[in-house]
Amino acid sequence: MNSIPCVIMRGGTSRGPFIRMKDLPSDQAQQADILLSLMGSGHALQIDGIGAATRSPAKWLL
After folding, report:
1. Range with top average pLDDT, 10-14, 20-24, 32-36, 57-61
2. Per its UniProt entry, which superkingdom is the organism in (predicted)?
């Protein structure tokens, strides 16, 4: 596993990763794989990709 320096910045209720291009591989396919992985793309419990998951059903009853 390799590491890539990243900062998660928040603006209001939105947040997102900031990565320097020089820290990513030059191959665009590899860049896309890394960025999609970072965002949690494709995981059923990820709604925004940066750690927020689906709501708990128990909270829907409140």
Report:
1. 20-24
2. Bacteria
Q: Determine which helix (DSSP H) or strand (DSSP E) holds 10, and give its type and residue range.
A: strand 7-11
Taking the model in full, what pTM does it have?
0.57
Cα angle 50, 46, 19; round to 5:
25
Q: At a CB cut-off of 8 Å and minimum separation 6, what does 46 contact?
A: 39, 40, 52, 53
C-alpha to C-alpha distances, 10 to 50, 58, 61, nearest whole angstrom: 11, 28, 30
End-to-end CA distance of the chain: 42
Question: What would the two tokens of residue 11 be?
Answer: 């603006």
Q: Which residue, chain included where needed, has tokens 């990763």? A: 17
